[in-house]
Amino acid sequence: MQMPAPGARWYCRRPPALPPTSVRAVLEPSMVDLSLPISERMKTAAGRRNRPLLSVLAPLGPPLRRNWPRVILTIIAGLGKFMLPLVVGYAAKVVIDALSAAHLSSDEQTQILMTWIGWSAAAMVGCAVATYFRASWGQKLSARIQHALRRRLFYHLQRLGMEFFGKHHAGALGSRVSSDIQHVAMVIDRGLIMFIMDFATIALIAVILAYTNLILTIVAFSVLALSAASVAYYAPKLRRQRKAVQETQSAITGRAAETFAGISLVKAYAGEASTGRAFSDHSMVLREMQEYTSRLQGRFNSVSLTLVMAAQMAVLAVGGWLAIHHPDTLSIGALVLFLTYLRWVEGSVQRVVDGMIQVQDGMAALDRLGDMLALHPDPVERPNGDKPEQLRGDVRFQDVNFAYQPEVPILCNFNLHLESGKTYALVGPSGGGKSSLCKLMLRFHDPQLGKVTLDGHDLRELDPNWFRSRVAVVLQDPVMFSTTIEENIAFAADGVGHEHVEHAARLAQAHEFIMSLPEGYQTRLGERGVNLSGGQRQRIALARALLRDPCLLILDEATSALDSVTEHAIQKVIDSLRGSRTIIIIAHRLSTVKNVDEIVVVERGQVTELGSYAALVKGGGTFARLVHEQTLG
Ligand SMILES: Nc1ncnc2c1ncn2[C@@H]1O[C@H](COP(=O)(O)OP(=O)(O)OP(=O)(O)O)[C@@H](O)[C@H]1O
Ligand SMILES: [Mg+2]
Are 443 and 360 in contact, with CB atoms under 8 Å apart? Predict the structure, then answer.
């Protein structure tokens, strides 16, 4: 065992580089400063610049590639749905021209009428079939893409570092995985597919109209081009603002989830009014943002639709003039065709305008998704990390310097050797760094300088999932999931039978209380195990740890909430586990660490004393003083 060597602090010499701006924007808590004016809040919440369109759409690439036949079929069905009705409009033109043509006999006129009624009926049937497949294939495609993205995001988020989770509300992350992904589906359904269908239909209309009368087509589409320009102008602005709204929405979801998770505290301190006020302030921010966005949306809607009507008026004016003065260039039927098709174009523009808010919601959600996916797992995972066959649990801290924030050092040149086969107790004042040592051993964080080794392997070289599967830990604040007790104990231990679960529960002194519950091991726990006492939660967490056969067993205040009889029984079990493994017990109640091989006193991130219980008490240092105070107390 080496004692810590004095030395310069790492954070003075080499401050860690800050992550790039886009990543920093995501790392920062999403709730914005209430004192800022609304336009500034929008910018803070959304980040000042939109990412390039292709980079925003990038996450859609893999699921779209995987489902490309369905994408093509949906687009074809959509094209059928939108284009086939054009036949009816064209039929009207042909029939009107035929009826007003003096040189045609009534038989010929009837013949033309029947032919085009036949074409229209066929188009109607085709349109009905296409509409059905457009809807059903479109929904299936959307469900598949949502599933693929939801899964990818969930797996990715789980791999991010603890720093990330320290800065994001669990509720807000939940909303990203659920509602954000739903918004993203809009980009495909109301966005990509709908836009392709609408633009293809408008292009076909343009071709038919140009074939009918070029001048009138140029007049109509010159005015419509302004409408396209307004889409290009407003879409990026709307996207940025929708992103700001979503950021604030998920921050509010997180805040609400946090309040309800801590509802017992809120009630116990009669904090309803103050939490209500804080929530209402943030909800007001969202309201202001939504109002601000709706003003922009209103301007966009009004400009776009006015331009479509202007196109119709221009066609009526120029077309009417042509029909009066040059009837040979434009028939009445052709003028009707222009006006009918421009109504179609109006419908398409209306859909684009109405869909714009949903699509921009989706684009904003996609942008946020891209921000998240751009974050790298922290600590960095080495691809194909080492997986040594045997691990004995020999842990070494070598010149470790560690801080959560650069300006607040936690460990400075920390050295400690925990030998396999021995039991250690980490003791010392609160905030001394005991739990931080455990987090480093689990590689929740990497030291900024120095290294932590397991059986001589730097933890950074090992496959994190592999070595963690050989470690068992009871965290200071045991985590429970809202599933059955059996599933909580067998968590992440695949293929373990009930008898093993029960054996572990017996060792952890939990079997009796579990059996006293109406549904025994199948009792479902409330969220975070709220329907259990603190001591019961600790015993389930202990059973979960004992179920494994770990090379390193870490118990961070694992028995602090237990009565002394139960705690004594558990100590005996832990004593019996000694062997080819390392056991680390963190405890404030010093009577519980009498039997360990070595006691490590950790104060202000340093090992200040090390030795057996008897030796340290005899030594008369901090440990002896703590024992003395506890005995007196
Ligand atoms: N996630 C975190 N981010 C920033 N600082 C942290 C974080 N976790 C712990 N700290 C700080 O690190 C220091 C050591 O904390 P640690 O939890 O390791 O202490 P401890 O010895 O386990 O205390 P206790 O006996 O109260 O559990 C404390 O000053 C604490 O404020
Ligand atoms: Mg602690």
Answer: no
- Distance of CA 475 from the midpoint of ligand 1 (Å): 13
Q: What is the pLDDT of residues 261-299, one digit of tens each?
A: 888 788 888 888 888 988 898 888 888 888 888 888 888
In a domain, 435, yes or no: no
- How many whole angstroms separate alpha carbon 307 and alpha carbon 351? 15
Closest ligand 1 atom to Cα of 436: 18
Question: How many A from CA of 473 to the centre of ligand 2?
Answer: 13
Tokens of 180: 């954000």
Nearest ligand (C-alpha, residue 405): 1
Q: The domain spanning residue 129 has which CATH number?
A: 1.20.1560.10
Q: Which atom of ligand 1 is nearest to the CA of 437?
A: 18
- How many angstroms does the Cα of residue 198 sit away from the middle of ligand 2? 60
Count of the separate structural domains present in the chain: 1
Residue 3 has pLDDT above 70, yes or no: no
121 in any annotated domain: yes
Q: Determine phi and psi for 609, rounding to 5 degrees.
A: -145, 150
Residue 488 lies in a domain: no
Highest mean pLDDT among 119-133, 355-369, 370-384: 119-133
pLDDT digits (tens, 9 = 90+) for 446-457: 999 999 999 999
Give the closest residue to 246 by CA, choosing from 61, 63, 160, 372: 372
Sheet with 449-454: strands ordered across: 408-418, 395-405, 449-454, 457-458
Q: Ligand 1: list residues with CB < 6 Å.
A: 166, 404, 410, 430-436, 476
- Domain that residue 363 falls in: 52-373
- Shortest-distance Cα residue to atom 11 of ligand 1: 431
- CA of 438, closest atom in ligand 1: 18
Ligand 2 centre from 280 Cα, in Å?
35
Is residue 125 domain-resident? yes
Q: What are the distances in angstroms from CA 56 to CA 2, 365, 369? A: 52, 9, 9
